[in-house]
């Protein structure tokens, strides 16, 4: 019996191969797109889940009452972690974690750049990065270092690394370490990871900050005992803040900070590490956290595409039901039961879905390398074999076959045998359902189109908005740790001396945007001034910084080699000047460092966006004090051929530093990299909108064919009575045009709300314009009318004699 169902189903599928091909193409494209998107959602949601103690691991953070909204930060003072462990029995393990720019690792005559993390001995007890070779209780010694397999391979080749000594140079200081352990390479879905892991005590300024509570430099992770109550533990941190951070509380109260919800102006809390990958609202988080909105958008788009494909399937099946009505009547007359017919139709649906599933997954495998490169995703096709993904695929398969197969089948079974054998079928209800499904389909496609237009407009705005400095003609070059930053800047100045087109060369501790080294950092300093606290970003720079970046002075002067005292002077932006006082603040002294002489303001420069446009311009202080090393060289060029100039700078770099790799990039590239998430989202929305519209049009084309077939005689009569081709085309297109416009009206408020919420994440953003909605409706209407008109024109041009012939 089952074999007969398959044979009959195959014959019917071949008989209706045109419509079934449309179904398969639409479904396979939808399955391929949804597979890639859903795998990305699964991958992003799997971050850090491999840690055995994930449910008991937390990040410690501060909530501080600041003007505007309360500020959350994960940056901690050095003495906090050991004090917290000593004071609270619920703390089983605790570790501080900090990193920095890549360090230079030397072994024999080999020298390579590696990333270093500074952690406490509990690090490998908290996180499941097992030691596969060497001392299982890693980092027991202050000079121990743990390597990953990839790092060990790069440094030692195939030799056994355990017990060997390497020299690691960071903060301009070389230090010797003994390899005590080897771990597997960090998983792609890990927030934490580095090439080398050493004890936190080796981090720069550790000794100076050991008893300092008002300097916050690193992240703290804690593992609570299995029986500990996280909420009760967090509540119990209030006395800790009052005891050790009393000065902070007093300063906040003095400055008029409003109490938080717990009644304090500063509180200590814990954040679940399992949500670390989505922790975008905290000032210091390891890894590259992404917004849940981004992952949610991927999930919604995948669902949208599947819904549109299912609607296509239903509409195509309903459209075909009119051509199969007599077949059903004959089957019923010959004694076929309801369940036999349902089984037959469901078999056909399953066969179509199976073909589409295989084709869709094959298509996904084909485009996956390009998808991974475009969206920097770590997905793999074998992820589909994991239980959750496999269950999801099976569930979606049965949902699609049931949703897309049973409704048309039940619809056909309700036809009265006598009516269908006479050739008359009541199409009123199917027409209503078809129209509703078409409205839903085009509503989803229009929402995606509107979102695409707004995201594209916002990204264009971010790329073209003046930032207050010259990003088009400046090259940023990471220096690395193998040479002193100040010496490197001066040496490169000498190397470039006399070169045409060079406007300025300077150095800085912090890059602008994200360069090829991927590093991004900031330094915030707080100090008391005239009875209130001032907080400012602090940036160590070299001479000619403002000139090189074309940043305009508002008052005073820049750092100058003619003034020896400039090493203890500062230049501030207008935001910082507003905090210092009204009027001209040049000449004012700021007590920025405890126990050191005040620093004089010698100049005020115009505000520039030294952070991404997600953030408003904040107070910034430039200093030449070498608390932080110069890590980047900026070169500004003025010429008509920047490409050749870049190659020229690269050649000069290799001449000056033959052993240091050139990883320079234009600041234009650096700033654009700050909006990678938005660009990925834009690309996904554009792709999804195109796919959604194409799938919708496939269904619309098939339905228009079936509608025109049903109205063939009507068209013939109208032509005989004198109707023009254009009037017939308008008649046939009008109904579908109305449905598309209704879909657009439904989509408008939904898309506006979604995009309004998304734009709130930017301090600088566009205003949503009315023409975006009009354009999206016009796009949907134009594509729909073009799709329908092809068939409508063919029908209108057909010979009416043929259509009026009796069957």
From TrEMBL:
Domain of life: Bacteria
Transmembrane residue ranges: 21-43, 294-316, 345-368, 388-415, 436-456, 684-709, 736-755, 770-797
ABC3 transporter permease C-terminal domain segment(s): 300-414, 687-796
Membrane-related topology note: Multi-pass membrane protein
Main location: membrane
Pfam families to which the protein is assigned, alphabetical: FtsX, MacB_PCD
Key words, A-Z: Cell membrane, Membrane, Transmembrane, Transmembrane helix
Residue ranges annotated for the MacB-like periplasmic core domain, each copy included: 22-238, 540-641
Keyword Membrane recorded: yes
Subcellular compartments: Cell membrane
Name the UniProt record assigns to this protein: ABC transporter permease
Organism: Mucilaginibacter jinjuensis
């Amino acid at each position: 019996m089952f074999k007969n169902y398959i044979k009959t189903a195959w014959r019917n599928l071949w008989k209706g191969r045109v419509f079934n091909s449309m179904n398969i193409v639409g479904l396979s494209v939808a399955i391929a797109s949804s597979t890639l998107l859903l795998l990305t959602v699964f991958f992003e949601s799997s971050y850090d889940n491999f840690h055995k103690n994930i449910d008991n691991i937390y990040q410690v953070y501060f909530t501080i009452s600041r003007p505007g909204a309360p500020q959350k930060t994960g940056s901690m003072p050095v003495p906090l972690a050991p004090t917290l462990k000593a004071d609270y029995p619920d703390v089983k393990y605790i570790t501080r974690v900090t990193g920095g720019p890549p360090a230079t690792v030397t072994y024999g005559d080999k020298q390579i750049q590696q990333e270093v993390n500074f952690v406490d001995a509990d690090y490998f007890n908290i996180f499941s990065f097992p030691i596969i070779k060497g001392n299982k209780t890693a980092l027991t010694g202050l000079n121990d270092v743990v390597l990953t397999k990839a790092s060990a391979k790069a440094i030692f080749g195939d030799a056994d690394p355990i017990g060997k000594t390497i020299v690691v140079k960071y903060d301009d200081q070389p230090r010797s370490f003994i390899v005590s352990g080897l771990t597997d390479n960090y998983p792609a879905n890990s927030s934490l990871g580095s090439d080398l892991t050493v004890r936190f005590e080796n981090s720069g300024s550790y000794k100076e900050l050991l008893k300092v509570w008002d300097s916050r430099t690193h992240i703290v992770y804690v593992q609570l005992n299995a029986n500990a109550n996280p909420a009760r533990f967090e509540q119990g941190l209030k006395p800790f803040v009052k005891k050790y951070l009393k000065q902070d509380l007093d300063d906040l109260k003095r400055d008029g900070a409003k109490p938080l919800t717990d009644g304090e102006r500063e509180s200590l809390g814990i954040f679940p590490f399992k949500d670390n990958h989505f922790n975008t609202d905290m000032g210091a988080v390891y890894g590259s956290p992404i917004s849940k909105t981004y992952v949610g958008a991927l999930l919604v788009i995948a669902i949208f595409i599947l819904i549109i494909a299912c609607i296509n399937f239903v509409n195509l099946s309903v459209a075909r039901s009119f051509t199969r009505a007599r077949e059903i009547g004959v089957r019923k007359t010959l004694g076929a039961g309801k369940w036999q017919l349902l089984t037959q139709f469901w078999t056909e649906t399953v066969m179509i879905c199976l073909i589409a599933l295989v084709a869709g997954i094959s298509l996904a495998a084909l485009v996956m390398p390009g998808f991974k490169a475009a969206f920097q995703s770590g997905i793999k096709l074998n992820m589909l074999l994991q239980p959750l993904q496999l269950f999801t695929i099976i569930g979606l398969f049965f949902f699609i076959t049931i949703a897309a197969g049973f409704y048309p089948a039940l619809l056909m079974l309700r036809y009265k045998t006598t009516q269908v054998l006479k050739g008359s079928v009541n199409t009123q209800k199917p027409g209503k359902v078809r129209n509703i499904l078409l409205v839903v389909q085009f509503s989803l496609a229009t929402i995606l189109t509107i979102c695409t237009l707004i995201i594209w407009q916002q990204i264009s705005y971010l790329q073209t908005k003046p930032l207050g400095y010259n990003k088009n003609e400046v090259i940023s070059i990471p220096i690395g740790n193998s040479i002193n930053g100040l010496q490197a800047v001066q040496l490169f100045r000498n190397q470039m001396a006399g070169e045409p087109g060079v406007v300025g060369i300077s150095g800085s501790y912090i890059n602008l945007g994200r360069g090829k080294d991927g590093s991004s950092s900031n330094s915030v300093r707080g100090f008391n001034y005239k009875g209130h606290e001032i907080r400012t970003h602090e940036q160590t720079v070299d001479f000619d910084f403002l000139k090189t970046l074309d940043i305009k002075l508002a008052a005073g002067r820049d750092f100058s080699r003619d003034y020896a005292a400039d090493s203890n002077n500062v230049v501030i932006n207008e935001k910082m000047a507003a905090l210092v006082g009204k009027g001209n603040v040049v000449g004012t002294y700021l007590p920025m460092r405890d126990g050191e002489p005040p620093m004089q303001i010698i100049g005020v420069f115009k505000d520039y966006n030294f952070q991404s446009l997600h953030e408003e311009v904040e107070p910034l202080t430039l200093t030449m004090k070498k608390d932080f090393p110069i890590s980047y060289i900026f070169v500004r060029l003025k010429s008509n051929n920047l490409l050749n100039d870049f190659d020229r700078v690269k050649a000069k770099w290799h001449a000056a530093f033959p052993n240091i790799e050139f990883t320079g990039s234009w600041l234009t590239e650096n700033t654009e990299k700050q909006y990678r998430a938005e660009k990925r989202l834009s690309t996904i929305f554009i792709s999804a909108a195109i796919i959604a519209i194409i799938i919708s049009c496939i269904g619309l084309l098939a339905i228009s064919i079936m509608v025109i077939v049903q109205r063939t005689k009507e068209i013939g009569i109208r032509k005989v009575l004198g109707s023009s081709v254009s009037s017939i085309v308008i008649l046939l297109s009008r109904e579908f045009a109305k449905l598309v416009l209704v879909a657009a009206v439904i989509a408008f408020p939904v898309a506006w709300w979604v995009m309004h919420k998304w734009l709130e994440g930017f301090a600088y953003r566009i205003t949503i314009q009315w023409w975006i909605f009009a354009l999206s409706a016009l796009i949907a209407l134009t594509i729909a009318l073009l799709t329908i008109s092809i068939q409508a024109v063919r029908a209108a041009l057909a010979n009416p004699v043929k259509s009026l012939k009796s069957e």
